[in-house]
Amino acid sequence: MIAMRDPEPNGRVAVVTGANRGIGLEVCRQLAAAGVRVVLTGRDRDAVEDAATGLRARQLDVTPAVLDVTDDRSIRACARKVLKQFARVDILVNNAAVLVAEHSELLATSLQTFRATFEANVFGAIAVSQAFVPTMVERRGGSVVNVSSAAGQLSSMSTYAPAYSMSKAALNAFTLQLAAATRGTGVIVNSVNPGWVRTRMGGRGAPRSAEEGANTIVWLALQGADVPTGKFFSNRRVIEW
Predict the structure, then answer these.
(1) Taking CA atoms, which of 107, 178, 230, 235 is between 20 and 30 Å from 187?
(2) Rounded CA gap, 190 and 158, in Å?
(3) Can you tell me the mean pLDDT for 40-56?
(4) Which residues are registered as beta bridge partners of 145?
């Protein structure tokens, strides 16, 4: 385990995708509770506004914004809005994801399922990063946390949810690429396995709470340059790819 301090947020701004419920919403809550100004995003305007209202009722600094990670125009519009309002982004959490055809066998999974899954889980994270990470590079600092899964861990991958598992492995590859591309700029990029969490996606039988699932994501986001870049984390420990 890497022993690190719990740093002060210093007025940082975070953008969290897929944040109107589940792990994303809990990440927003924990970041805002730590003093970070949080932009809570999702593709449905009413859902993100309701989620942000709930957190603001707790005196947390949360701003709702519409962002559909599968729509380039939506991404560009959100980036313009955020950068106009805050002039900076210090933390990006690529959390938005879909899980479809969970119990389908590989050879029975349609190409449409693979394409839709990769569009949200991989290409969405790439597009959002292309919109926000250059501002981090310019400011010589920032943290990108890609929310992955043990399902995408090549060292232990099984036949579970082929499209989802393969998309998370691809997201991990993107983490390595982005970490290498930004090395030396002060931007830190890592993947996180939050575990099996009780959310709409994870189901009621999952052993972990949303708070537990969000813990390592938030910890990494707040560490900034004090943490290694280009790694895969679970429970605040580096794990195999």
Answers:
(1) 235
(2) 23
(3) 98
(4) 93, 190
160 catalytic, yes or no?
no
Sign of CA dihedral 144, 223, 55, 99: positive
Q: Domain segments of the chain: what residues?
A: 13-239
* Cα–Cα distances in angstroms (integers) from residue 226 to residues 53, 130, 176, 220, 233, in the given order: 33, 23, 18, 9, 14
- Does 7 have pLDDT greater than 50? no
Angle at 35 between CA 34 and CA 40, to 5 degrees: 90
Choosing from 86, 114, 164, 233, the catalytic residue is 164
Could you say which DSSP state residue 185 is in? T
> Span 13-239: which CATH code?
3.40.50.720
Task: Provide the 10 A C-beta neighbour count for residue 75.
Answer: 22
